[in-house]
Amino acid sequence: MTKIRDLPLLGILPLDKLILHERHDQQRSPGLVDNIRSSGVLRNPPIITPLHDRTGRYMVLDGAHRTLSFQTLGMHHILAQVVEPDDPALSIHPWNHVLWGMEADEFYESINSIPFIRLEACTQEDGYRQLASHHALALIHLPGGETLAARIPVNDLVTRVNFLNAIVDRYKDRAGMDRTSIKEIEALKKLYPDLTGLVVLPGFRIEDILYLAGENHLLPTGSTRFTISPRALHVNYPLSELEAEITLEEKNSNLQRWLQERLANKGVRYYAEATFLFDE
Length: 280
Hints:
Largest sheet: 6 strands, antiparallel
Helix content: 25-40%
Strand order of the largest sheet: 9-11-10-13-8-12
Number of strands: 15
């Protein structure tokens, strides 16, 4: 691990020690594999956090598709940014799913037909209270203005995750789906002329997600958003360094020297303000 002062903690780690916390969206990886292979560099390291369960494993917070792409490429090591789960600069938020291209009635029936799930009409205000208290599993906003709370009879952590996956499985391959932080369906109608609905997902604590991932209970695809400050971006670390036939300790020593050279040549820049990048 690198420990250069004021830089994010970067390290080269065994790829088989990294685990995911969400189900994988198969459609997003093939193009990324080709991009990584052709560029010859890892542009943006994944963000990972240790499980602290004596297994030496790390959970991927951001960068699941890069991690899986490295597996596809047959890599054994990967460069990652390491953060502790209790880091005050680490935050977690739920994504919501905006859906289009599926009839609203079909969408409703697909969810309502899941065994043991009840869809109960409610006001938006009451729905968000139920979601915050875990009395509702998720909220569903329909284009006609209806708000429905999805309720289940048993409310333990693993059961909630299993039912959330059942809900998302009913639409993820049958409708167009985007992640959004928007919670009001009215704001989406102009953006999505064939709007199907908006699914508002619950938040989870980091310790719950670590437990679930460690026990191989994955959250639905596109359901969590982690942010960390500072974030290491545009590192462009050579794949040849990660593939080298040397020990992991030697690879991390080489990484340390590489970063020191980048600093000496003024190749590292820190932006304190929020930044939009237009070269992604």
